[in-house]
UniProtKB/TrEMBL annotation:
Cellular component GO terms held in the UniProt record: plasma membrane
Keywords of the record: Cell membrane, Membrane, Transmembrane, Transmembrane helix
PANTHER family, per database record: ABC TRANSPORTER PERMEASE YTRF, MEMBRANE COMPONENT OF TRANSPORTER-RELATED
Organism of provenance: Metabacillus sediminilitoris
UniProt keyword annotation of Magnesium present: no
Keyword Zinc included in the entry's annotation: no
Topology class, membrane: Multi-pass membrane protein
Molecular function in Gene Ontology: transmembrane transporter activity
Family: Belongs to the ABC-4 integral membrane protein family.
Top-rank taxon: Bacteria
Chief location: membrane
Cellular localization per UniProt: Cell membrane
Pfam families: FtsX
This protein's name: FtsX-like permease family protein
Length: 772
């Protein structure tokens, strides 16, 4: 036999099923939002870990001089599990009439990679002569299988190759972020292009996770072993370095999304509490009658507990699949954009348990305050007051001006709790959207500054024995070339205490006009201050916020020297970088070799073909080329991915606000039937009813817009500081503008109309007899 209190709970739910549905929807949306964000974090990290395991990702990469010797002896080094030698070649491939920089990897169809495994599709034969393109490269350059491209290898004649298939290589940074294309050729194809099959890269995996000191020891022992075979290691790279940009972007996105999601959840909780208040306030008389008949507080709590447990069960069963679907598609998008791998549809056990707990805790906490308030109301007062028991009675004024147009505002202001929660939800979502529009302005301003850093038009990586002065003088005589400079850019290792870091060393003229660095601390290179360097801010941070005046040890090959830090410049999203005067560099290594040529060209000219023809005439080998315009566009892709993700959350929270506002307006229709009936009986048209509710909706939306503008300023400040610190180690520029505020004002008015139109339509269509 079903207990009476359970029957009473079921009867109340049936009686107020509309309000109950609104509460369930509100709780489900709140929990789904926070669950989706937390599960997205779980799915991303799981996808990253699984793909590292499935591909047997290299934990250490050694870049070496060409060799053909057997290196299996490296597996005897304590801590090394596997080693695999590979051949990687720099090349340029002409696609759609323009040369693009590529890294080509030699592979064998008979002996697939065991470390950094790749998935291939296409004509995979041991003697295949075609080119396989990595998936993100194929998409970036808009190529298709069967297309033909021209490949230019350093020192070799240009040849035509067909694209025979695609490769999934999750170890590669997407081409649109790196600017590099990735291709794969069989050893037979390389020989056909005139290249000798010799290895120059070694991938290594460890037996278990290693500390920094253990890794350094393994690297030194591996170098020593290779040295006995006359193999020189020019650079080492840990897996963390290749994944750094992608992990940084995702961690920045997820951190900000979770913070915003928690705030949205708290605001949603306030709304749910208010909705419970609305239900309980209509049961004051019933509860007072129960108390007169002897019902205790314990009995009434049991009665409500049935409803709350039912709510919790329904919320849990609906929010888990909803949040799972949202997190799956969002993490799938993120993982694909960053070329990390594939996402499986799974749900975190921890997030599942948290969702289960919150599904029951949230309704109970939200309902506890209204229920407790009702239980404290004296029985006599409860029997007299049938609704709105918590509102203090106000003195009536003898004279009051009234106009029908003000009725909408009065109705909105009467329910202050509902007004507050609606305004907060809408304003927070709107503030995120306004802040994201401002962030886009900040992005443009920041990128404008970054674009001013490189003050030239084109660059070439070259191999030549010609003197620097002769190169520059000859280039500047080419029609269309205004100015030229020659640099040396190479990899180096810096040491501080026991830690070592890979850096990109730029040997540049101390008085160069080709870069305009933003000095954060200290000063730029000075000829009068020898043995000094300038470092980027991201290197400064990775070294523990090192300051100007401190010293670093730089190692190139077997040469080591200590240098004093003269200045710190703003990062350019190129990783840890050092700038050194060419004079100091030449004196240190006794080497005037240059490998980078840069030019400023006439604004009306495109001199690429002229310069490259001159290179060919002088037997200068071209390894790579790039346009500054393309270099400057790549950081924009990274930051935009973060901004678009935040914008998605702003739209999601705003959608929740619209739904909650529609819910509140629908409840208003239920509660104000008699008021609507009186207006209709006095001759009020259906248009007046529409005017009443739509006016209320616009008033609420207008208030939310004001708060959105106010909240957006500190929110934009926080987001620009966080995003800037993570990516550039300094805040983005202030980019607040009137456009975002005005745009959201227009949307706010539309939201107010949309959220109130359908409830108004329901009210206007009801018969007068039903309303009264």
């Amino acid at each position: 036999m079903i207990p009476i209190y359970m029957k009473k709970a079921g009867k109340d739910l049936t009686k107020q099923k509309t309000r109950a549905i609104f509460i369930l929807v509100s709780i489900t949306i709140c929990l789904s939002t926070i669950g989706a964000l937390l599960n997205t974090n779980y799915l991303f990290n799981k996808a990253l870990q699984q793909n590292l395991e499935n591909t047997n990702a290299a934990e250490l990469t050694l870049y070496t001089s060409p060799f053909e010797e057997d290196i299996s002896s490296l597996e005897k080094v304590d801590g090394i599990k596997e080693v695999e030698a590979k051949q990687q070649i720099r090349a340029r491939i002409k696609i759609n009439g323009e040369f693009r920089n590529f890294e080509l990897m030699a592979y064998s169809a008979n002996k697939p990679f065991q470390i950094n495994k790749i998935r291939t599709a296409g004509q995979l034969t041991p003697s295949g002569q075609g080119l396989l393109l990595e998936k993100s490269t194929l998409e970036q350059f808009k190529q298709s299988i069967g297309d033909h491209v021209m490949i230019s290898l350093p020192g070799k004649q240009t040849k035509e190759l067909s694209i025979d298939g695609t490769v999934e290589d999750f170890y590669r940074i997407p081409t649109r972020l790196s600017g590099l294309g990735y291709g794969y050729l069989t050893e037979d194809a390389l020989e056909n292009l005139g290249l000798i099959s010799s290895k120059n890269l070694i991938h290594v995996t460890f037996e278990s996770s290693k500390s920094e000191s253990q890794v350094n020891k393994i690297i030194q022992e591996a170098k020593a072993d290779l040295k006995t075979k006359n193999i020189t290691v020019s650079r080492t790279e840990l897996s963390e370095e290749s994944l750094f940009i992608r992990e940084t972007v995702v961690n920045a996105i997820l951190l900000l999304l979770v913070v915003l999601g928690v705030v949205a959840f708290l605001l949603g909780f306030l709304l749910i509490t208010h909705l419970f208040y609305r239900i309980v306030s209509e049961q004051v008389m019933e509860l007072s009658i129960q108390k007169v008949l002897g019902a205790t507080s314990y009995h009434i709590w049991k009665q409500y507990s049935v409803t709350l447990i039912l709510f919790g069960s329904i919320v849990f069963l609906t929010s888990v699949p909803l949040s799972g679907a949202i997190s799956f598609y969002f993490s799938k998008f993120t993982v694909q954009e960053l070329n990390i791998g594939k996402v499986e549809f799974t749900y975190s056990l921890k997030v599942l348990i948290l969702t289960l707990i919150l599904s029951f805790i949230v309704p109970m906490l939200a309902a506890s305050y209204p229920i407790q308030k009702v239980l404290k109301i004296p029985v006599i007062r409860g029997l007299k007051n049938t609704s709105r028991p918590f509102v203090k009675q106000k003195k009536k004024h003898s004279k009051r001006y009234f106009h029908f147009r003000f009725l909408s505002i009065r109705n909105a202001m009467i329910k202050k709790g509902q007004l507050l929660t609606n305004v907060l939800m809408l304003s927070f979502g709107g503030a995120i959207i306004i802040a994201c529009i401002a962030l886009n302005n900040s992005l443009l301003l920041t990128l404008k500054d970054m674009n001013q850093f490189l003050n030239y038009d084109r660059e070439w990586s070259i191999q030549t024995s010609l003197p620097k002065e002769e190169l520059i003088h000859s280039l500047e005589e080419i029609n269309g070339v205004e100015q030229a400079e020659a640099w040396t850019i190479r990899n180096a290792i810096i040491s501080q205490s026991s830690s070592k870091h890979n850096v990109l060393l730029n040997s540049v003229p101390a008085q160069t006009d080709f870069i305009h660095p933003e000095i954060l601390e200290g000063h730029w290179l000075d000829k009068q201050v020898p043995n000094s360097i300038v470092i980027s801010s991201d290197l400064s941070q990775s070294l523990g916020n090192i300051k100007t005046g401190d010293s670093l040890t730089i190692q190139i090959g077997i040469e080591e020297k200590q240098w004093k830090i003269a200045g710190i410049v703003k990062s350019q999203l190129k990783g840890p970088t050092i700038y050194m005067s060419q004079t100091d560099y030449i004196q240190w290594l006794n080497n005037e070799h240059i490998n980078r040529l840069l030019i400023k060209q006439d604004s009306k000219s495109d001199v690429q073909n002229k310069v490259e023809n001159w290179f060919n005439d002088k037997d200068i080998t071209i390894e790579a080329s790039d346009k500054v315009e393309d270099i400057n566009s790549r950081p924009e892709e990274v930051i935009k991915l973060i901004i678009y993700s935040l914008l998605f959350v702003g739209i999601l929270i705003s959608s929740v606000g619209v739904l909650n506002m529609t819910t509140a307006m629908s409840i208003n229709v239920l509660e104000r039937k008699q008021e609507i009936g009186i207006i209709r009986s006095l001759g009020g048209s259906k248009g007046k009813i529409y005017q009443l509710f739509i006016g209320e909706g616009i008033f609420i939306a207008g208030m939310s817009w004001v708060f959105s503008v106010i909240i957006s300023y500190p929110l934009h400040t926080y987001l620009s500081e966080r995003i800037g610190s993570i990516l550039l180690n300094s805040p983005l520029h202030s980019g607040m503008s009137l456009n975002g505020s005005l745009l959201w004002l227009g949307f706010s008015i539309l939201i107010g109309i949309f959220a109130s139109f359908f409830p108004a339509r329901i009210a206007a269509r009801q018969p007068l007899t039903t309303l009264l």
